[in-house]
Amino acid sequence: MVLLGQVRTPGCYPCSNSSPHENHWICVDGGSSAVLNEDGQSSTLPKTAELGSLWHRLIRPLCRCLYALLIFHIDITLAVRTKKYGSSIQDSSAALSASMFRKSLASNITAKAPAFVSPKRIVAPCKVENEAAHRWLEAMKNLSPPRMRRLQSDLIDDKSDIEAADINYRAWMVDHPSALDKFDKITEAAVGKRIAVFLDYDGTLSPIVEDPECAFMSDEMRNAVKEVAHLFPTAIITGRSREKVYEFVQLSELYYAGSHGMDIMGPVEGCNGFKAQGTKAWDEKGNEMVLFQPASEFMHVMNEVFKLLEKKASKIPGAKVEHNKFCISVHFRCVKEESWLALAEQVQHVLNAYPNLRLTQGRKILEIRPSIAWNKGKALDYLLRALGLISRNDVFPIYIGDDRTDEDAFKVLTRRKTGLGIIVSNNVKETNAVCSLREPDEVLEFLRHLVKWRRRRTSRLV
Questions:
Q1: Are residues 320 and 429 in the same domain?
Q2: Does residue 119 lie in a domain region?
Q3: What are the pLDDT digits (tens) for 309-352?
Q4: pTM
Q5: Which residues form a coiled coil (predicted)?
Q6: Is the pLDDT at 98 greater than 50, yes or no?
Q7: Complete DSSP assignment for 155-207
Q8: Cα(274)–Cα(288) distance, rounded to whole angstroms?
Q9: Residues 68 and 106 in one domain
Q10: For the domain that residue 343 is a member of, what is the CATH number?
């Protein structure tokens, strides 16, 4: 029996874990194949195999074509309504209903086909002894951009998956419109208010790169950030160490918060009676600042864990451990995927001895931090308070970031019902941000627009 038109080298191949063939094997001899159970008895493939093949070859592409036509119709309708009635940063009822319709439609279109066994998708069952490490990997993979996972996967049958991703992204942008397209609306909301700008670094001011030591920002971006800092209070809040991000940015006009906000170099004199917490320090240019480190008692532990992880990771090709002071990052980006589990297990072996530390996942990265109630949202609150902007009604904070950890800052702005959160992403992701930008190049364009807008308003007042 020919198995779904696939030609395989004679031999036995393990079935996937999907029912009803757990612990079964497919044996191929020339052009025929059969399913063997654990006792070596032969059985035939289920009828659903033929149905699954029909679904993937004929029905699914047809459904996607219909889906694309319907989405195009929705876009035209929405554009007409927007032109007729105007638009705002807040979601309109038309946009919301369109978004709900798309989500409902997408869930129906992407419903699973009948279960079937395809040789192209067969993988040997993996016995996972370390449940925690396995969960970490699953969470980390889910945070990887879907389009990139598809392009790197050998499971792509055609371009339909990529086209579907583009359609989904356009639907997502109904709820998270481009900050460039909505720039006039954003500045209208900011008129008469004190703007403060907060920026992530990796993936926001610089592109994501294979080697974290080479995440350099462009000279154009540096000049734009410098101009922004001359016009508005500006800070960088990053998972990197404060010293490392300063080496990349090289601007003394900013405030810096490293280690996901656990290492803040802020203003000395608080406004409105606020007394800055921390100790006096001096930045790289000799300016007096206040150094605030809410996890300072963990410094010795973090140094110890870094040395252990560095030793463990040295056994796995491509693995890199980065010491970000109060955050240790284990990078998987240059590690072959078949070695990911081994690296995650090494991380857990070390972490088991330190119950006061916690682990979080990012894009091809695991991060170890102190278990304290502190994050980028808390750092944003601290800086707003230190700048005398926390209790004012005329404040408009703008926070731009691309990472899961930036969501804590977006939540702060949502809770305060002020300012604007902007997510940097070229793929669909769940976020508390209001607007979006695709990539660092668009961040650069947005910052330049902000500078030009403020200078125009200043010249008019003069």
A1: no
A2: no
A3: 999 999 999 999 999 999 999 999 999 999 999 999 999 999 99
A4: 0.69
A5: none
A6: no
A7: T--STHHHHHHHHHHHHHHHHS-BTTTTHHHHHHHHTTSEEEEEE--BTTTB-
A8: 17
A9: yes
A10: 3.30.70.1020
